[in-house]
Design a protein that fits this description.
Blueprint lengths: L8 H13 L7 H14 L3 H17 L4 H15 L2 H11 L16 H30 L5 H21 L8
Helix pairs in contact: 1-2, 1-3, 3-5, 3-6
Length: 174
């Protein structure tokens, strides 16, 4: 276990909240969320809220099956702290996840490098699916504006259109 030394009180609280979020499920939601809000209240500041939102976004795009739980948490946070603008801004920031990245295998690559590239492409595919599901859940729960969802959709469709022309059988089109 690698742990940064000399953490600030806020960084330590964010790490503890992150640890709690790693354990969250539908069954223990209320218990975990009460602990999360205790930590927020003990250190309530802009850095704490921003750090928590960043963690929730990363977890949601990496673990799409938990998107409804993370949206429920963000909804509760919005009720207490008014974070809708932060969420919309974070969605616009995160839309770059769905941009196509040209990663291609070449003949000079070792088997390990080819495997690493394969893993990276799969991880990016998971991020794209997670981001899409997450913004859908946010929109369904009135957590982001129509402008934010239209911007993300337009960005995705533009990238898809370019990819279909350039590489119709590529991973992005898939």
């Amino acid at each position: 276990k690698v742990k940064k030394e000399n953490l600030s009180e806020i960084e330590d609280a964010i790490n503890k909240i992150n640890s709690l979020l790693n354990k969250i499920s539908n069954k223990n939601f209320d218990s975990i969320i009460s602990q999360v809000f205790e930590k927020i209240e003990a250190n309530k500041c802009e850095e704490m809220i921003n750090g928590l939102i960043e963690n929730v976004f990363m977890k949601a795009v990496m673990q799409p099956t938990y998107c409804p739980i993370y949206v429920k948490l963000l909804n509760m946070m919005d009720d207490k702290y008014g974070i809708i603008d932060l969420i919309n801004n974070k969605c616009l920031e995160y839309k770059s996840i769905i941009k196509e990245k040209k990663l291609v295998e070449d003949a000079s690559m070792t088997e390990q490098e080819k495997y690493d590239l394969f893993c990276k492409l799969n991880k990016e595919k998971t991020y794209k699916a997670g981001y899409s599901q997450f913004i859908g859940e946010l929109f369904k729960n009135n957590m982001i504006t129509e402008l934010t969802i239209k911007s993300s959709l337009s960005y995705f469709l533009d990238n898809l259109g370019k990819s279909i022309v350039e590489e119709p059988k590529g991973t992005y089109v898939e």
